[in-house]
Write a structure and sequence with these properties.
Strand content: under 5%
Number of strands: 0
Number of helices: 13
Radius of gyration: 19 Å
Oligomer: single chain
Order of helices and strands: HHHHHHHHHHHHH
Distance between the termini: 35 Å
Number of domains: 1
Largest sheet: none
C-alpha cells in the first residue's frame, strides 16, 4: 500500500476510534477508557516485539516516563473532550498540536536570541488560534467551554509528547517500545484515577466491544501512520492526516446529530490550513534548524 493510502486508512481508523470512544463514554469514565486502551495496547506491543525478536528493555526509563506521562495526560483530556463535545470539534482541537509546536519553536527562538521571528510562522499561529476562537464561540454558548479548553490543552500536551518521541527516536528507541511504555503508563494512570473518580463500571457486551475497538483501532492506526511517515513525504502525510477531522464530522452528524455551525466549520478550516502551513514551513532549512533546538524542550 502506498504511503498516501496508508495515511488515509490511518485517519479513518483514528476517526472511527474517536466514534467508539464517544459510544464507550456512555458506559465508562474517561479513566476507564484510558485504562482499557492501555491494556490492549500493551498486549499488542508485547506480541509485536516477540514476533520480531525484539526486547522491551530500555536504558532510558526516565525519558520514557516523561513521554508517557505527557502522552497519557493528553489522551485523557482528549477522550474527555470527545465525550463532552461534538466529535469533529474535539478532534480538531487535538489536531492543534502542529500549531502548538510552531508556537514553541517561536518562543524557543526568541528566548535563545535566534534572531528575527519568521513572520510566516507567527501568522500561522495566529490563524490557528483564530480558528480556536471560532470553534469555542458556540461551545461557550452551550456551557461546554471547560471541555473545549481541555481539548485545546490535549493538543498542547500532544505536541510536547511528539517532541519527546522525536528525542527517543534519535536515541535509538524503536516505535514499538515507545508505544509499549506509553500503554503501560495508561494502565497505571487509569487504575490510579478510576477508584478516586467514578469507580469501575460493570461491563456490557456493547461496552466491551467498544473498548476492544478503541484499543485495536488506535494500535493499528498508529502502526499505519508510522509506516506512512517512514516511507512517504512528510508534507503529504501531514496534510492528509487532517482527513480525520472530515471523517469525524461525518460520524458526528450521522451518528450523534452533532450541531456544527458555519463559524465552527470556518474555525476547522483555519486550523487545518494553519497546520498544513506549519508543516510546510517546518520543512524549510531555517525552520528545521530551529526545530532541532526546540526538540530539547
Amino acid at each position: 500500500m502506498s504511503p498516501p493510502m496508508l495515511m488515509i486508512a490511518a485517519t479513518l481508523l483514528f476517526a472511527t476510534m474517536g466514534m467508539c470512544v464517544k459510544f464507550a463514554s456512555a458506559d465508562y469514565s474517561t479513566a476507564e477508557i484510558v485504562f482499557y486502551r492501555g491494556v490492549i495496547g500493551t498486549a499488542a506491543m508485547i506480541l509485536l516485539t516477540r514476533a520480531h525478536g525484539q526486547t522491551l528493555r530500555t536504558r532510558m526509563p526516565a525519558m520514557h516516563f516523561w513521554r508517557s506521562l505527557t502522552g497519557v495526560c493528553a489522551l485523557g483530556l482528549w477522550f474527555y473532550a470527545i465525550s463532552a463535545l461534538p466529535l469533529s470539534t474535539a478532534v480538531t482541537l487535538n489536531y492543534m498540536s502542529p500549531i502548538w509546536m510552531t508556537l514553541l519553536l517561536l518562543v524557543r527562538s526568541v528566548l535563545s536570541g535566534g534572531g528575527k521571528v519568521d513572520i510566516r510562522l507567527a501568522c500561522t499561529v495566529l490563524a490557528g488560534f483564530a480558528g480556536v476562537i471560532c470553534i469555542l464561540q458556540p461551545a461557550m454558548e452551550g456551557n461546554q467551554l471547560s471541555a473545549g479548553l481541555m481539548g485545546l490543552l490535549s493538543g498542547l500536551l500532544t505536541a510536547l509528547a511528539y517532541l519527546q518521541v522525536v528525542a527517543l527516536g534519535r536515541a535509538g528507541e524503536p516505535e514499538a517500545r515507545v508505544v509499549f511504555y506509553f500503554s503501560l503508563c495508561s494502565i497505571c494512570a487509569g487504575a490510579a484515577v478510576v477508584p478516586l473518580a467514578s469507580g469501575w463500571h460493570a461491563h456490557t457486551l456493547k461496552g466491551l466491544g467498544m473498548l476492544l475497538a478503541v484499543g485495536l483501532l488506535a494500535t493499528l492506526a498508529q502502526l499505519l501512520m508510522t509506516r506512512a511517515y517512514a516511507t512517504g513525504r512528510i508534507l503529504v502525510n501531514a496534510s492528509l492526516q487532517y482527513l480525520s477531522i472530515a471523517w469525524s464530522y461525518v460520524y458526528g452528524v450521522l451518528l450523534f446529530s452533532d450541531p456544527v455551525t458555519g463559524i465552527a466549520l470556518l474555525g476547522m478550516g483555519l486550523i487545518v490550513a494553519a497546520g498544513i502551513m506549519a508543516a510546510r514551513l517546518r520543512q524549510s532549512a531555517g525552520a528545521s534548524r530551529q526545530i532541532s533546538k526546540c526538540d530539547g524542550l
